[in-house]
Amino acid sequence: MFVRIGTVTVAMRRQTRGMADLHVYPDRLEIRLTAAEKVLAMRRAPLVVPRHEIKSVAITADPWIWIRGIRAPGAFVPLTLAVGTWKFHGGKDFLLIKGKQRSAVVIDLEQDETEGSDGGEFARIIVSTSHATRLIEALRLVDPDELAPEGEAI
């Protein structure tokens, strides 16, 4: 796995096999699902969220308490796997939670109905990742010049 920070590329050993790739660009966050995750979530395209639609980002040690609503469509094995769309009274959430011991990032979004983004589609995105702090640090960067145009892979 290669991580690009500014103009420096750092090679890292991939610790999480079979996990989605998270890419932070100056203008958007992209979540690229693996083939298995695409099948389980019944989704073909990656999630693309413009950065201006992100209201808040938090790390949680227990992502299972953040699940709200019912699965439609997606896959769910209690306390083991939650992948796909969850519908609730106020909208929809996208979940990509794997494992009992892994922390997750909870991204709350504004519900703008804009073309070409998934921010208007979902109210919240929950992704389990072992790189939660790096994701939050990359999203926290306010100056687009600090992030390379080709983005940062997390």
Descriptive overview:
It is globular, with a radius of gyration of 15 Å. It has one domain (33-141). Strands 6-10-11-9-8-7 form a six-stranded mixed sheet, covered by helices on one side. It has a four-stranded antiparallel sheet with strand order 5-4-3-12, with helices on one face. The protein has a two-stranded antiparallel sheet with strand order 1-2. Helix content is 10%, strand content 42%. The longest helix has 9 residues, at 132-140. It has helices spanning 35-41, 132-140; strands at 2-5, 8-11, 21-24, 28-32, 47-50, 54-60, 70-77, 81-88, 91-98, 104-109, 124-128, 152-153. By secondary structure, the protein is mainly β. A hairpin with a 3-residue loop joins strand 7 and strand 8 (81-88).
Quick description:
This protein is mainly beta. The protein is 10% helix and 42% strand.
What key phrases describe this protein's structure?
single chain; 154 residues; six-stranded mixed beta sheet; four-stranded antiparallel beta sheet; 2 helices; 10% helix
- The assigned structural class equals mainly beta
Question: How many helices in DSSP terms?
Answer: 2
The low-pLDDT segments are: 1-16
User: Can you give the mean pLDDT?
Assistant: 82
Count the E strands.
12
Alpha carbon gap, first and last residue: 9 Å
Overall, the morphology is globular
Major sheet: size, sense and barrel closure? 6 strands, mixed
N-to-C SSE string, H for helix and E for strand: EEEEHEEEEEEEHE
